[in-house]
Amino acid sequence: MSKIPLAALLPHEITKALNLAQEFRGKQIFKWIQKGTIDWNEMTDLPGSLKPEFASKADPRTSVMESLTGEKDISYKIRIKLFDGLYIESVLLVDDQERKTACLSSQVGCSMGCVFCKTGTMGCIRNLGAHEIVEQFHILVSRFGEISHIVFMGMGEPLLNLDEVRKAIAVFHHPLGKNISLRKMTISTCGIIRGIKDLALHGPHPRLAVSLITADEETRKRLMPCSAANSLEELKGALSLYQKETKKWITLEIVLLKGVTDREEDIRKLINFIPPLRASVNIIPWNPAPGLPFKRPESLRIQWFRSRLTEAGLVVTQRYQKGNSIDAACGQLFVTE
Ligand code: SAH
Ligand code: SF4
Fold it and tell me: By CB atoms within 10 Å of each CB, which of 46, 73, 132, 269 scores lowest?
């Protein structure tokens, strides 16, 4: 990469990176870049005489959309080619109120190796730069129009690339850019304790979702190798800290695997695990991924699981199986080459 990628630079950083004599030029360029403009000629308030120099030094967009699959008005998956020839996937989800959510990747692949997740079979090839995270959003907006919500639930573990995810959040949140509230951004983590504490103490404070999967420690260790170094007790301590610092509810994601995480004891242990945390439970029936040895529970079992938690007074939501038919649902993102 010889040119300076601009997508994740804040106005003052653009001023510095391009050595601009006037501070306001950095703001002008930031606004254009965050509108998704990639052609310097369309940046009409910049002096024409400076544009060739900008174009030779800096790059508004380093990645390109390669392909798009979609279920009309429900979900769309895009495959993006990065500057070095690697691929990632990002997803646009549309809910029944036509609210749009961008599901962004934070890494190429993922090193965490959760055995129920297709991305986990890739290993982590590399972290994404902040600009590559922001560019996913710009590409989705250019294709589907404005998007109100962002979830870091695509490929990768965002808390293992926290510095770049932080920069991307700062850009999304900036008042001269998309100005997306932190309430509308969610980081989903498999439970990296160091990262949760770092976020709690140093910010920013988006919504936090944790792939708890099950509150049965032994099963969790079997399904999620990372949980060997991140015990449930320590995880709960980190979540308490996040809650203390942010006053925000936390979402616990439970992927339902038939006979593995949908048992009576999973329910009992989950009900015990939560208090005094203020946490809602998001049930995600497992999305099939070729080659992985699990099954989704039957719908009656899912209903039973859900109602047991509701009867215990928990707040429960269930994720629709959006994107299933195009392999764009949670845990199905995967690229080769
Ligand atoms: N690495 C982060 C974010 C990406 S995974 C994390 O683990 O939280 C996004 C979500 O997909 C997580 O909640 C994860 O538990 C879930 N998931 C992974 N594989 C899945 C599958 N095959 N079916 C359903 N959900 C899955
Ligand atoms: Fe990585 Fe999340 Fe998949 Fe686990 S569930 S392998 S942490 S992407």
Answer: 73
